[in-house]
Amino acid sequence: MQGTSLATPPGSKSSLSVEFSMVAATGPHTSTSWSDLPADILLSILQLLELPQALAFASVCTTWRSAAADSGIPCSGMPWLISWAGLLEDRGASGRCTSAVTCNFYSLTDVNKVYDVSFPQGCFVACCGASRGWLVLVNELSNLVLYNLFSLVMIPLPPVTDFTCVEAVYDSKGRLEHYLFETKGVHSANYLGTWFYQKAVLSCSPSKGGDYIVMIIHRDSTWLSFVKAGQSRWQVASTLGVSGTDRYMDCAYHDGRFYTVTLHGMVEKWDLDELNGPTREVIVPARQPGRILTRHLLSTPRGDLLHIRAVFAGYRVRFRIRKVDLDECKEVVQKDLMDHAIFLGLNHSACLPSKSFPGLNRHCIYFTSPWMTQTYDWLCQLRRGCWGGVRVYDLKARKFELAFPFRDRKGLINPSPSEIWITLNI
C-alpha cells in the first residue's frame, strides 16, 4: 500500500507560478524570510487556493495566518463537515452511479459559508470514514483508498475482490464488466462500493510512517476486516450470521487495541498481532437491543472508553452514555463531560475540550447519521424534525438542534450517510 502524490487542484499550479513571479519582480528585499512577503501578494495567492491548501498556508507562520484570517479562512482547528448530499441527489435524478468531483465543506465558526473542495476524478464514489486526518473513500472500482486533503497523497487499499463474497467478471478483452456478489447478485463496478462498506477507522496516521492498521465494517455490517500497512490482502476478523439480527455498529482504536460494538450491545476487544490470526475478548455480552438507533464507541482524552447509544424514546431521540469497564458498563456522570464536545457519525468518534475551541458548544454531541439500514423502521416513526441533517444534541436539555440549518434536507430520512466530520491535521 504505497501512497501516490497527486497534482494540485486544477488551475492552481500555473496560477501560483504567476504569483511567485510577481514576488520576484518586486525587486530585492532586505529580508529573505517568506513571512515578509507583501500582504497583497499573500491575499492574491490565497484567492487561488482551495480550502485544504489555504489552511496549510495559514499554518506556515503568524503573518500568513493573519493574511488567511483577513481573507475569511477559519483557522480554529475544530472539526469540519464534509457533505456529498449533492452527489446523492444527482444520482437520484439521473439514475446513474457517478463520482464526486467536488464536495462541500462547512465550518462551525461560520455556518452560512460553504467551501467547494475538488477531488481527483474517480476516487469519490462514496465515503466510509474520516480518521487521523485522512478520508477513507470508495473509488470507481469499488476499492477503498486513503486520501489526505493536504498532501494530496492517495494510498490504495487491497481490492474488493479479496473478499470471498465478491467475484470480478471480465469480457473477452480482459476489461472489468461487473461484480458478482454471493455468486448471484450482479453489480456494476462503481455501484457495489456504494453500499458494501459501512465504516473504516485507522489506528494511527499514515503520514507518520508508522505501522498503521485500517479496520472496516462491511458487507451489510456483518463482517469485520482489517489490513496492516504494507500488506496486500484484507484479513477477515469476524463474521456475524446474515440471517441473524445483530450487526456491527462501530469500531474505535483505544489504548493500543481496536474495540467494536454491535447493535445488540456486545463490546469486543481485538488483538490483531497474534501469529495464528486475530483474537477477540468479549468485554460486554450481547443482549436484546430494545429501541436502539445507533451505538458508538469513543476514546476520551482522560483515557476512558465510552459507549454512546442513540435511543428511540417516545418518538424522539435520547443519547445515553456509559463507560466501558472490564467488569461492567457504568453510567457516566454528566459532569464528567461538562467541558467537552463530542463528534459522532461516520467519522472516527472524537471528544474535544470546548475551552480550547472558541465557538464550540460545551456538553453537546455534534451528530451526523452513519449507516442505519438495520434501524430504519425506528427512524420512520420519529416525529418530523427529530432526525436528519446535521444536528447538535444538548446533553443537559436532552434536545436536538440543527447545526447547519440549510442542511435539513426538508426533514427527509435516508439510511445512507451523506456527511462526515473530519479534523484536518496539518
Question: Can you tell me about this structure?
Answer:
This protein has helices at residues 12-25, 39-46, 51-58, 62-70, 85-94, 193-196, 376-379; strands at residues 4-5, 80-83, 102-107, 110-118, 126-131, 134-138, 144-147, 153-156, 166-170, 176-181, 185-187, 197-202, 213-218, 223-228, 235-239, 248-254, 257-262, 267-271, 279-284, 292-299, 305-313, 316-324, 329-331, 340-344, 350-353, 364-367, 391-394, 399-402, 419-422. It is built from 7 helices and 29 strands. The strands form 7 sheets. It has a 5-stranded antiparallel beta sheet, with no helix packed on it. With 426 residues, it is mainly β. Strand 3 (102-107) and strand 4 (110-118) form a beta hairpin. The longest helix is centred in the first third of the chain and has 14 residues, at 12-25.
